[in-house]
Structures
1.
Amino acid sequence: MQAVERKLGRIFQITIDEGEDFFEELDRFIKAENIRAGSVFVFGAMHTVDMISGFRSLEGYDIDRRCFKDRRELVGLGNISWPDSPPAALGDAAWDEPRPFVHIHMALSGGAGKNEEVLVGHLSGANVQKAFVEIYEFL
């Protein structure tokens, strides 16, 4: 086991508005506030959602990506880090320097009339209808 003691820093409540790109807005805010580590709590409604819903097999990084273009609700919990290179989940992204990476596990509602179709996975993109985000910064 590994453990790191952290102190609670600033706490932010953010609203991401209609039509905004979820990660673009969140990354911009994290950079502007220089939040180097923290926890992220998200709930809201999205016009579109991209997600990684799991692995197709146990062979390497064989993930299942899904895209939903109908309005859905989600709740998520994640963390903020600044890795030196892009995580595998970002595909062929290239970085010249460390950047914020927000890793969010989520539960996603089914589309209209599909309330029983709840999915869980990783949020990889979203166009927002309205989202609320709380960030708890760790020092």
2.
Amino acid sequence: MPEASTVPHLYEVTRRTLQGDPKELPAVWLYDERGSHLYERITRLPDYYPPRREAELLHANAREIAGRTRAATLVELGSGDARRTRFLLDALTELGTLRRFAPVDVSEQILRASAAAIAADYPALEVEPIAGDFVHGLDAIPAEGPRLVAFLGSTLGNLYPAQRAELLTTLAGELDADDALLLGLDLVKDTTRLERAYHDPTGVTEAFVRNALVAVNRELDATFDQRRFAYDPQWDPQREWMDIGLRALAPHTVSVRRLGLELAFAAGERLRVEISAKFRHETFERELAGAGLAAASWWTDRAGDFALVLARPEE
């Protein structure tokens, strides 16, 4: 779970979102050690296409990205096991510019394991893991440039528009003129394919989402009962995001004792755990511009499923 220094903030955010409409658990509760391992299993599911599409794009374009950025420091926000990041590590190492890798992740267990693996496989690199979420970890980003900040896996889509704007604006303020930001974006596509990607027949995705309740019960002395909720991922066509959560099967009350909350759920009421926004080229370029960034390059797969975007601060 999160670093001790971020716990008060997480508790306060959780208190606020559980009292919102709809009720919501911050997505960070998904990523304890078990949740992080479940997510890695999700990335291997046949219908969960984003990791494969992103890996194809990184494999095809890593050398060009390395040549355009000539990064001395590679920072990855929400690094997980950093599996796909190795395409960038290989290309930048081959180019001879890379000296430091700084993975940032909320799961200390996954972070330690991946940092140790990277350090063993790339002995010439300085590996500086940073435990924290991708917002609070920004303060610890190494200063030596040129820097390439990678935010892959379409994790940007898990943020609401206002949160995306805040993060992108913060990054634009942190980046120097020779730094760059690499983003992985899942694109709008057929609704059936999107729904299959988030509701696999093996139940791994459902187990991942339900694990947030396990974590909250453990950490916040809560009484969420899995049997009282159905897994309920939905496509929101207006906002163009997957709304991922659980639906109460009958009226009941949940206690969250550490936060002093009593939550009444009506039959059919949803508990949101995560959103996953999908993007369009033109509208996302406007988001970048609003944050003080400009897209230098776009790469998409042949099916138009996924995109990599290289952005820089506007001059």
3.
Amino acid sequence: MLCIDESDLIAPFWSGTKRVPKPLEFDLHNPLHAEFIQAAANLRAYNYGIHGTSVDDKSMDAFVDALKDFTVAPFVPKRGVKVQVSEQDTEQEVTNPDDELVMKLLKELPPAESLKQQSLSVRPVEFEKDDDTNWHMQFITASSNCRAMNYSIPTADIHETRRIAGRIIPAIVTTTAMVTGLVCLELYKIIQKKPIEDYKNAFANLALPFFGFSEPIAAPKRKEGDHEFSLWDFIDVREGRDLTLQEFIDWFEHKFGWEVSMISAGVAVIYLAWWPAGKRQERLRGR
């Protein structure tokens, strides 16, 4: 019996729990959009040493005046873009229409020497969530809420966003560092082709704290004739072309010498050797 994994079946991408995103129409009179513009502009002003506005100043007059002649182009999905979906896709086959635009912008940039002559100083923004005057949390709140509106999920106010950020930052630093280190240790063992007894499963809870390790168990293997396999093995039968069910069965029996009695995908039965002849022949002609 050959079981085809259900994930191999083709299904609409926006199905199940996936939410279809929708573009936002920019409106400067929308408080969420206005806060995003204010916060982003003040953060960029800080980068270049320009005096920004106070978070207490909710006036949008300066922004309305600066953007009165600005029109946001409507969102249009890109066409002619080929996305790499498998390792078989070569880099030449995957094209990015933005590459030409990036090269054009790079050519338009002034030489680095000219920037030095103008004493241009750029400074990074060091994130601080507990400073109510630096526009950091305002920017994160506005940008995350815009993304939430893209996917029709609930938005959060600045206090809830600050609470989430306060939990994420230490968790990212400590947990990521620990997990990365443990994974790298196992990668070294793979490169050195160590036996399975040398590998370790790690269990860690930084809140307790608890750290435990165990040895992995090899997947049971089954041997049929000259072929040995486990649940982790798979057989690629595409051969660069579509196969009818009959061609697939013939290929399988010729390559392995096994008689195919049943083919299923998930809970769907595709073929049974003991079906009536008429039904079997109808399925065998399909792809």
